[in-house]
Amino acid sequence: MFDRFESGEQAILVHVDFPAEIDREDLSELKLLVTSAGVETLAVVTAARSTPSSRYFVGSGKAEEIADAVKLHGANIVIFNHSLSPTQERNLEKLCQCRVLDRTGLILDIFAQRARTHEGKLQVELAQLRHISTRLVRGWTHLERQKGGIGLRGPGETQLETDRRLIRGRIKNILGRLDKVQKQRQQGRRARQRAEVPTVSLVGYTNAGKSTLFNRVTESEVYAADQLFATLDPTLRKLELPDVGAVILADTVGFIRHLPHELVAAFKATLQETQDADLLLHVIDISDDRQKENVEQVEAVLEEIGADEVPQLLICNKIDKLDDGVARIDYDDQQRPIRVWLSAQSGAGLELLRQALVERLRPDMVDVSLRIPPSMGKLRGKLYALNSVTDEAVNEDGALSLHVRMSSVDWRRLCKQVADEYGDSLQGFVE
């Protein structure tokens, strides 16, 4: 295997145009990925084919052109904007005499740089091991023979078989640890469900502005940058909304077209927050020329992880980059918010987002006036604890007149508590 440079890698990029939409990739997105990985682009080699070549992915003539570009520019890595088979990688490395990385390997490398939490690092390592396990032979072609020496002669496993066994053991170990993390997350979700705290999950194409919006709404300081996959580890924050109460807002990893299956499988515990959410805020970079394709890719990933049935509120972000961008809410025929136009960077439209969230999450409300005798001061305390008292007055006889507004769920729960504690129905105190 070729030496891996810790920093300052210089690359030749390879992009192939295919007629089929399913095989097509975006060259500008590859350049963004390469920049996000901290790699300098020396040259770009483009080609057009109807189908990939089994030997080099590109034709033999184009492969020679890539090898010449490596020598000419002194590059130490070649990066393809497509997924390569292990055989294609080996053949290209032999020809170019440097490391060859495909799109999947590049995304995995960015994820490895971004992982901060223990869980995130485990998930990335799992994805990398699954990807590397099919490419082991590249590193051990000189050790295919069986081990020799005193006490090791005769039947035994090759170095390659040893490495495969070690990788299988490591994958099993990581899966066990991630299973514990997933159970802990499930406990947290069950606790929120018991407390009937709604969860809102931010989803969207990478670099759509999810973390910037998250910071604006929750007044947090989650890392946000104008680069792909700036956010990797999920972050949860509590948000207070009128008539709704506490809401959990989750910032998640961005999606990308042809997201490697290894990553989808590895990030199952993280993406569970999206599956179990009450509402998805689908953030769209409205200034991006590829917004339609990006939305389709996000919908495809949501379907793959089983979150396509979760209700969505579209967030058209970056209106500050449009000539006619105006903050507004779009409603459907039932007067339900379906789209919010805003700018997370400038803050325009953030109040409209809060308004739309209240309208989408607000439960059935109970709005009543209560007359409580002085002996039931404890009930007054419970009403204030629910943050439901909007007006209060003291009558001549010492009784309290309270105007309260709360969700029907809280009302039913309070009615049961009053019946158990005082033996009276709360309805009897309604004026």
Give an account of the 3D structure:
The chain has 431 residues and is α/β, with parallel strands linked by helices. The strands form three sheets. Strands 6-7-5-8-9-11-10 form a seven-stranded mixed β-sheet, sandwiched between helices. The chain has a four-stranded parallel β-sheet with strand order 2-1-3-4, sandwiched between helices. A three-stranded antiparallel β-sheet has the order 12-14-13. Helix content is 40%, strand content 20%. α4 runs antiparallel to α5 and α5 packs antiparallel against α6. It has 13 helices and 14 strands. The longest helix is centred in the middle third of the chain and has 36 residues. The protein folds into three domains: 92 residues, Rossmann fold, CATH 3.40.50.11060; 167 residues, 3-Layer(aba) Sandwich (Rossmann fold); 65 residues, Alpha-Beta Plaits, CATH 3.30.70.240. The N terminus is likely disordered. A hairpin with a 5-residue loop joins β13 and β14. The radius of gyration is 28 Å and the shape is elongated.
